[in-house]
What does this fold into?
Amino acid sequence: MARLAKVYLGTNTKMNKTIRETQAFLQALDAATADLDRAALELFVIPAYTALYHARSAAPRERIKIGAQNMCWEEQGQYTGEISPLMLAEIGIDVVMIGHSERRHIFDETDAQENWKVLAALRHDFTALLCIGETLAQKESGIADEMLRTQLILGLQNVTADMAQKLWIAYEPVWAIGENGTPASEAYADAKHAVIKQCLRELFGAAGLDIPVLYGGSVKPENAVALISQTNIDGLFIGRSAWEAARFNQLIRTVLPALKLKRSRMEP
Ligand code: PGA
It folds into this structure.
């Protein structure tokens, strides 16, 4: 058996979709995927803040988890423009995404801030989805592994193995994300996932291997199967190719049989 029972497939809609568009997207995605066995699939959608409240009721929680794209580490106070864990808990959010590349590189978030957010998310019983990834310059300088280890070690300071049960990691190389991105090859992605898993093992012992590590960055129907078939890739975190329910559904249905094959291959 592969170590993780489920495959993790989700999308961050970034600064796209109004409330109505998000509702329609979730309803269509849920209708298209309602038949799929959730014991083997964790499906999640991370819409814009303004749509979160309505998103929560647009699809059943046991079929589609809803996440927030960011969160302040403080519960309340003088933090203009921020959203607190209490506010997200009030609307029943499941997942909090932390340290997406666009937060780190456009809004200058630091590893220390990501760490405070991870700790706050886990303290409030959310699933914390910590995103990490090297830039093109770091990759070309041959320090990608060091960067990934640094982001993990700093981002996960003071997280215990027990808390890490609600931790997910997304490996999203900065050079692979978005319209100008080039997807990582499956071999490159798998090698980086192996580095991440090794680091998680050092941090949390055997429990570190139960933390799902998702690949993100220009995932599309054409490369999804090759990526998910890799030993160390536990899920896919998708942007543009998942923003239309029919296309996302198609991608999910392409991935699931590949996963069965991978499981049978990994069977002792
Ligand atoms: P993309 O986005 O699939 O559009 O490259 C990925 C991401 O930013 O998570």
Summary: The mean pLDDT is 96.
